[in-house]
Amino acid sequence: MSASFTALMARPAIFAFVVLAALALLPVAVWLDLRHLSDVALREQAQSLDAMITDIRGYYAKNVVGRVNAARGRAIPVHNYQVVDGGIPIPATLSLELGEVIGGRGENMHYRFVSDYVFKSREPHQLDAFEWGALETFRGEGADKPVIMSVGGSLFDRNIRLAAPVLMGETCVACHNTHPESPKRDWKVGDVRGLQEVEIAQPIAANIFSFKYLLAYFAGAGFFGVAFASMQWRQAKIFQRLNGDLEEANSFLAAISMKISKYLSPQVYRSIFSGERDVVISTERKKLTVFFSDIKDFTVTSERLQPEELTQLLNEYFTEMSKIAHDHGATVDKFIGDAILAFFGDPETRGAREDAEACVRMAIAMQRRMEALNDAWRRRGIERPFQTRMGINTGYCNVGNFGSEDRMDYTIIGAEANLAARLESIAAPGGIVLSYETYALVTDVVKARPLEPISLKGISRQVVPYQVEGLIDDAPADAGEVINEYSDGARIFLDVGQVSERERERLAAVLKKAMERLQTAGQTGH
């Protein structure tokens, strides 16, 4: 059964058809039961009517025809007909005795004739509240009033009582007004003599099984509902267990994800887990700004410190530098011993100029942070704290996933990356050295001076390094040595301290010529 329900639930169209068919069967079951109930009621009424007629016929044969034949055709209608030869019952006596005949069968139908005026030789009739009320109504409002009914019963049965008036006719008035045992001698034609009462009782339980089709429908629907609820409960338990397993798996994956994030740069981590980047061996050639730094005389410093203290200092150093790199948008490639390799331009880029500027600003922020860290380390008893050197170069590199199908590394390769490492090696402790390619992109934001051209191993051309002296924005407003102005159609950058005597004369002539052209353009309106 469970398999059948599972198969049914797996096919929504068939399940919907079954539900619609079940709903369509409900009115069919109701109609069949109503027809059956009607058949049962008609059969019971026919049987009751047949039994009543049979009893009445028997009563009439015995107490009327039989008595008349015994008296050789003589008939005397009297109330005490049984003690009179040829006596037959008068209508009131007939009604009373018919009630006993019909009610004596013990069925659910009873007939009764009652009156508050009985002959002196008879027992007074015991009337209840319904009967007294009916008599008062008929006598007060008229005998032409419709029959009076009362419906009652209990939780397990229902009954209906019907009361109709018994009216005095001419023959009855003459008899009752002259009879010596009559309790009333002023009857008139049409007066209410008493009540003719019919009572029918019907046990509710007797009709319950008359609704056999409806009960069968509800039994089937109940069975289906119980089976469906049972299956839903089982599925709910399965889903609950699966949800628990999924929550546990998600918690495990979240923990693993957090651990993996410690081994990847935030940009690479986001690109992989968001689905933007596939974990396959592939590379691209992009223009990057590469940053390389290491600690001067790290070996010597490490020999002066205990391993635990060295590990703590190095972790503090990498933590602080990584935070600054993250704030500036750098992709931290790796830590190589005491060195840091990072780059700008992949997987996210803001443009070559903006990437170069962000890299230089990051390097300056790192050197400033190193000054604060060195002060803190000296107060902790470190005699010779770390001093870092940094090199920055901009150029095309291959960037992407390198390695094998089982193990790969997201990194960069190329001569431009090697050049950044070479520039770092010639930087002074606490200094930053740029390549010309980087300096050309940040001349409007960085103050730097050229160094002597050098030849580096692995680099075929001579390289002109630039020593960073600070950001132009950091120069005092009244220093007067740096002019950095730009607008639409104009860009002026002049570092007076970096200009030689010969260049000053040439630049003065260029600026003078520029002033003349500006004045001429202003006079002509162009």
From TrEMBL:
Keyword Transmembrane helix annotated: yes
GO molecular function, a single term: adenylate cyclase activity
Alphabetical list of PROSITE patterns matching this protein: GUANYLATE_CYCLASE_2
Name of the protein described by the UniProt record: Adenylate/guanylate cyclase domain-containing protein
Species the sequence originates in: Jiella avicenniae
Membrane-spanning intervals of the chain: 12-34, 214-233
Highest taxon of source: Bacteria
Gene Ontology terms describing biological process: cAMP biosynthetic process; intracellular signal transduction
Domain (Guanylate cyclase): residue spans on this chain: 289-424
UniProt keyword terms in alphabetical order: Membrane, Transmembrane, Transmembrane helix
